[in-house]
Design brief:
The structure is a homodimer.
Chain A: E1 14-15, H1 25-31, H2 41-58, E2 64-68, H3 72-83, E3 89-94, H4 97-108, E4 112-117, H5 126-134, E5 139-145, E6 147-148, E7 153-154, H6 158-166, E8 170-174, H7 186-189, E9 193-195, E10 209-213, H8 215-222, H9 235-242, H10 254-270, H11 272-292, E11 307-311, H12 318-329, E12 331-332, E13 334-335, E14 344-348, H13 356-372, H14 381-393, H15 396-400
Parallel strand pairs in A: 1-12, 3-4, 3-5, 5-8, 8-9
Antiparallel strand pairs in A: 2-10, 6-7, 9-10, 11-14, 13-14
């Protein structure tokens, strides 16, 4: 490869995968502000504001709330590694790809793992988890994914939290895809630890993982007998930098935090309930359009509003459909992971990408491609159905102006 | 705290600490390009280019060369955790704060650690390391910091590499502060693994850690008996995403990689030898100015060009000097870490921050502050001495225009 490269250019894309999503130009603008030192009083104040805004979106009073300097997977590792010590009994309820990843990490942390599985696309009945907990001697931690990005299913949380606590365990959720797009009520649900990512419904580029720990989880971390196996993700050390002491741990990713700050500011300015309603409205429009084409969604109930899994009609090739969407229409969506590879399309409408332009464009493009691939489609029905949702909500105007 | 926040504002700062440094506006502009998907063919091509450019700055042909999705500390952890298995004998030669950090991580990885220490500010004689290796049964890894940011000393590398290999060990260096500012010759020195950070002499914001592994190190990783203790930093998994397979591992920090791409492009466009000469010239000017004020540098020999440690005159308070520099002149420098806390000032002239404007401004401000604190200073001597360095190099004009 010649290294005489020109200035970076990126193609125009509509991002409707499982993240990253498009971001508001204001967020990009914030990220291009000059770098500050990671111990500059002005930057420390920005961190304080990020913490306060993260508490608001997590709907928590948890003191230990901050953005880990890595992507959502780093947040998964930070929460698991800080709460688990070798030999601890951990229950992970798996209903998709990311639950499986939690198991792999818990095992690397030396956990004595109890793994429950349910069909991908469904959610857990709390009773199953309650029953499994009864078979464990001293469960330390129960972990589950709230919004499983690989299947499109949303797990009800509150009852599982109650059962975990009844068994004396901490309760951890992955809310990478849900935070900022659907209610995540850390305090009300009594969740002890949670991690997310900035690149989904929060509407900032990837690179940071918001995390929050309850006072009870903090107590468990403080009383560890062994240090967490990661130094980079050691919450005891990181808390001293994000908290009052400001002890140097690592150089924070300054500009990513600027972007996160602006994205959080925009989310709170929009209002969480308005934002959740927007995600739901665009989801309803997308589903109406998809079903009007004669397609079905994979998640039958408890559907995520921000990530839609569409079954691929028999005989059609996943890669070909996605390739045509990308190359002919500049629209990125994703295929299935693991057990669902080749069987579903995953269509994200998250954060700034959750808007009627994207929904309309996607439906029009998909209809064109399916029809040209020989699928019998009632032409125009998708857009008509989606448009009706918007008209009924009388909301498309405010959505279009919603910058 | 009220959450009715205005748009983010940052104060104007001259960054002359140990990093982050100021970055070229072109880098900030690249970071504000629209987000692409982490599996978009256009983004994968950007990753290929980043890899090729990283190989050029590391001066290596190593296939496994990429940017870890975390700051330099994540790179430290990624290299140590992937090369060490529990029970492995590891030698860490410590001559400052970051060598000590390596020891902490090696111990978390279960290493049987042999730690050598030398006075902070000095470097190791290779013979000491050779002798220590003879006391070990089967050394697996020797690790040392190339440019110790906490002391300002530059460790000669080549002979230690030879001794490590002679003993059958892999050889790892931390080149967080050196890469892009002074020669780092991975292949010529026969270094098996190295990590760096983007926010020092490479001139990009913090958030990524360039790493490189020799074929021999890759072989060791492939033949591990146990998985690395981190899943997020598991090079076997990450290599499948950065390499040809493009298997999803985590969502790459897209915009940080844009910034890194542009910073690398600018570094190679400047030319590495020209860039090293620039760092050296600004270092010589700074040292001439500092010594003309009657101050002394802590590192007596093997001085880093990009990070200068100045002894604080007796009776003066570290925090007060740095506070005045920041508040009265908008200049950020750093104080000492660990054993050197309160005893030295650390002045970075790295990457985009390495320019005559910054050197001149710093010398003028420091002279003013020291004089007003009652230190007897020959007024004007610092600037005259620094200016003479620039005049002799006949280079200040090209430096000033060097955007």
């Amino acid at each position: 490869m010649s290294l005489q490269l020109g200035e970076l250019r990126v193609p125009r894309r509509i991002l409707m995968g499982p993240g990253p999503t498009e971001v508001n130009p204001r967020v990009l603008r914030a990220m291009s502000l000059p770098v500050l030192g990671h111990l500059d009083p002005a930057f420390l104040e920005i961190m304080n504001q990020v913490t306060a805004m993260l508490r608001a979106v997590f709907q928590t009073q948890n003191e230990l709330t901050l953005a880990v300097s890595g992507t959502g997977t780093a947040g998964m590792e930070a929460t698991l590694f800080n709460l688990i010590e070798p030999g601890d009994e951990v229950l992970v309820a798996v209903k998709g790809y990311f639950g499986d990843r939690m198991c792999q990490m818990a095992e690397r942390a030396g956990a004595k793992l109890t793994r429950l599985d349910t069909e991908w696309g469904t959610v857990f009945e709390p009773e199953r988890i309650g029953a499994a907990l009864k078979t464990m001697a001293k469960p330390k931690l129960v972990a589950i994914v709230h919004a499983e990005t690989s299947t499109g299913a949303l797990q009800p949380i509150e009852e599982i939290a109650r059962l975990a606590h009844e068994a004396g365990a901490l309760f951890l959720i992955d809310c990478v895809t849900s935070l900022g797009g659907t209610p995540v009520l850390i305090d009300e649900w009594k969740v002890d630890a949670a991690y997310s990512g900035t690149q989904k419904c929060l509407g900032s580029p990837p690179g940071l993982s918001p995390v929050t720990f309850s006072p009870r989880a903090v107590e468990v971390i403080r009383n560890r007998k062994t240090p967490p196996q990661s130094w980079y993700l050691d919450m005891g050390l990181i808390a001293r930098y994000w908290g009052g002491d400001r002890v140097y741990h690592h150089t924070a990713p300054i500009n990513a935090i600027y972007g996160c700050h602006e994205a959080l500011r925009l989310a709170l300015d929009e209002g969480l309930s308005v934002r959740f309603a927007r995600h739901l409205r665009n989801h309803h429009a997308l589903v109406a359009g998809v079903e009007a084409m004669g397609l079905t969604l994979h998640a039958s109930a408890n559907r995520l509003p921000m990530l839609n899994t569409i079954r691929i009609p028999t005989g059609l090739d996943d890669m070909r459909i996605r390739g045509r969407l990308l190359n002919e229409f500049g629209i990125e969506i994703a295929g299935g992971l693991g057990a669902l590879k080749g069987r579903i399309l995953r269509v994200g409408i998250m954060g700034y990408s959750s808007n009627p332009h994207n929904v309309t464009l996607f439906l029009a493009a998909l209809e064109h491609i399916l029809a040209s691939e020989g699928v019998k489609i009632p032409r125009g029905a998708a857009l008509a159905s989606a448009h009706e949702v918007y008209t009924q909500a009388a909301a498309s105007v405010s959505d279009h102006s919603g910058k």
